[in-house]
């Protein structure tokens, strides 16, 4: 299999991700990175507040992880870095139309940083073929979600003064069912997309 010329695509493992099936190189990759950043911004506005908790349920994680699986590790993490950068310069892309540096360094900032890292992790797993089967996709999403929690929960505890156990429940436990549903949905979508693409 030929190695793609565009430097944002890792060369160490030649397995393709869905984005690699599209024609073009630089223009395609820039458009996809921008597109996933915009998709994350839109998904962030799908917001279900949880009474008494500082972190709402949103559609962000689904967009982050789905985009990462489609783009691969470098483009996946770049799309989230761009999303965070858009918010930091004042565009209303964060949950509830929020923006600004204070959001990134506030209670939910760890989740935003986690998106960047999870984008790389899930993209790397997709480049190894985990997104081609239901179980692999669910496992990749679980790994990405775990990364987001691993950064977001301690950040939440430090920024709010919550006890670690309280932060773990507020920042992760209350969202496990929703995240499991997102992983199962991705497990249906991504392998189906590969089957259609390979016909």
What does this structure look like?
It is a single chain. β1 and β2 form a beta hairpin. It is built from eight helices and two strands. The protein has a two-stranded antiparallel ribbon. It has helices at 26-44, 60-71, 73-88, 101-104, 109-127, 134-160, 164-171, 176-197; strands spanning 47-48, 57-58. Residues 1-13 have low confidence and may be disordered. The longest helix has 27 residues, at 134-160. The protein is an all-alpha fold.
Q: Topology of this protein?
A:
Blueprint: H1 26-44, E1 47-48, E2 57-58, H2 60-71, H3 73-88, H4 101-104, H5 109-127, H6 134-160, H7 164-171, H8 176-197
Antiparallel strand pairs: 1-2
Helix pairs in contact: 1-2, 1-3, 2-3, 2-5, 2-6, 2-8, 3-5, 5-6, 6-7, 6-8
Subcellular location: Cell membrane
Keywords: Cell membrane, Membrane, Transmembrane, Transmembrane helix, Transport
Transmembrane segments: 21-43, 55-74, 81-98, 104-126, 133-156, 168-190
Q: Which key phrases capture this entry?
A:
Arp2/3 complex 21 kDa subunit ARPC3; two-stranded antiparallel sheet; mainly alpha; globular; 8 helices; 199 residues
Under the CATH scheme, the architecture is: Orthogonal Bundle
Broad structural category = mainly alpha
Radius of gyration: 17 Å
Cα separation of the termini? 18 Å
Number of helices: 8
Report the top-level CATH class. Mainly Alpha
How many extended strands? 2
Report the major sheet. 2 strands, antiparallel
Specify the overall morphology: globular
- N-to-C SSE series? HEEHHHHHHH
- CATH fold topology: Arp2/3 complex 21 kDa subunit ARPC3
